[in-house]
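Task: sequence in, structure out. Protein: TRI36 ligase.
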Amino acid sequence: KVAIKGIERELICPACKELFTHPLILPCQHNICHKCVKEILFAFEDSFADGGSESSNQSSPRIRISASSMDRIDRINRSGIKRNSLTPRSTLFPCPSCQRDIDLGERGINGLFRNFTLETIVERYRQAARAAIAIMCDFCKPPPQESTKSCMDCSASFCNECFKIHHPWGTVKAQHEYVGPTTNFRPKILMCPEHEMERVNMYCEICRRPVCHLCKLGGGHANHRVTTMSTAYKTLKEKLSKDIEYLISKESQVKAHITQLDLLLKETECNSERAKQEASQSFEKLYHVLEEKKSAALRAIETSKNIRLEKLQTQVEEYQGLLENNGLVGYAQEVLKETDPSCFVQTAKQLHIRIQKATESLRSFRPAAETTFEDFVVDTAKQEDILGDLSFHSNGLEIPEINEEQSRMYNKALISWECPGKTDSADIYVLEYHKLNKEEQSVTWQKTEVCGKSKVLSDLDDDSSYAFRVRGYKGSICSLWSREVIMRTPPAPVFSFLFDDKCGYNNEHLQLNPRRTSVESRAGFPLLLGSERLQVGCYTTLDYIIGDTGIAKGKHFWAFSVEAYSYLVKVGVVPSNKIQKLFHNTHDVTSPRYEQDSGHDSGSEDAFFDSSQPCTLVTLGMKKFFIPATPAAPKDPASRILPLPSCLGICLDCDRGRVGFYDAGRMKCLYECEVDCSGLMYPAFALMGGAAVHLEEPVTAKYREYHDDI
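Result:
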């Protein structure tokens, strides 16, 4: 048997760090004092009322709420949970043991069971710890006598005389249950906290708690699997007994593990000291290199200073010599006193040259040396970045790789990455990115920490290229940086719209999905019947559909994808004043005259056909992108046919009157032309035969979670 004094840490409340007092069982099966639950919830409610201020987070002196618990309380406050006393609500409680937010249900504290078993064990421990302290009789006149027994029905302690008086022979009280002196009184029957008049007689295997028959019939456990209390008692007691026997039988193994752990503790201490020494040596090397560089830089500055001072001092002396009765001027004045012409000429020639130089220096004064030391400024920006990234590298931590297929650049940037080994060996990832700018010499990376393997960024500029890289961290150890991936943002802000299911929509030929983000054209019987009525040529009308939102001004971009099996799709824009003409246009047909090999593709016919169109469209189909035949386009028809990108984009600039068609995956313009933007402009699509178009979904913070669920 384990000594009662050896189980003290199992009897300590995780909140107040004292012995349990009236412990309650939380839904997570952890225990906590009744007072501690109330104090934590009071602190929670106060932080709600005061907006999470620091003063509201001051709990009572009895309870010590950890910083992580207060952080979870603040997070619950910020999560937007609304409190309304008029409607039933659930109560969230931050469990100090498992560090999770536990839902206490609508009844809150009143729905929790009191752990009488734990309370009894705590009382035994207290009695063993204070064996010399007696429990006094509750009914003796002063001075009270030491109690000899406690009545569980009366919840009081008695000496022998008082017990006989209050429990006379032959009365109902004589049948009361009594035990040795104790201060722990618990009810003989455990009642249901939700149905206070009902005793618990079943055990819910899903919630792992006792329940009454009303809970099973119509309460919160109606659809749960339950068993009888006796069966649960027998099963749990057998399991617990077997586990205890197993632990006792493995005592020698446990001691061996403890010995091994002691060795590991010592080994960890030694290895940590060795790692500290190696790290210190590495930094000492850096210090030595920096000291050498510092000394060399200071010596160079000092040498340059001395040279400049010497030059400036010489220049000062020369100018001082120009002063009257001093230096060169005085000497020249003395030479002028010479009366012998031959002697004067002999001396004056060289003197005249010096006087001319002095005169020229006066006319164009320039210091002999620069006073600034701009050439000696040490640029440490790159070194600071390198030192900022200085950390422990581990060969065991995998280098993440950015998945370019799963990453997207649309209204926001979605950057996804994965580890080659498909294992999440890192605890946290750091994603860095910067805008590519040829004018900037130094690169400033923006950094963000991510707990998962994807991140949505919303602060990027339009029509710009960005470089991305990611690395993993596990504690203080980090992996190497991943390969940099360059992605380009759309040329303009993203324009959001849905397919219009009212204006000109032909539900016999076209089919929309419920969200109106996809449209499909099926080559069914209506198409066959339409072709059967025509005996000459083969004219088949396109089925048009437009967006439900128009554009009046500005520059906008939207993207979509065309299914690979699509036979013919036209995409572009249409002004509001030509929408009716679009849906009733008799020229908008497909005819053999315009087939490439029909011999009827002259420039005059193309000009007539293009001018007759009410909107600006380009043709897609059969996995190809067809550049329209314009004077600026290549003459060879084959050079006007490009592979169909997986995602297409359209950029409409109403201010400049131009529309561009893009490969949205690379944000590369494939074709651009002028367009009349005098009216409200709508996205336009035309389908014929078997074809389908899907609008690109905007990137949101929950984008990856949504698609993972799908």
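The first strand starts at residue 23 and ends at 25.
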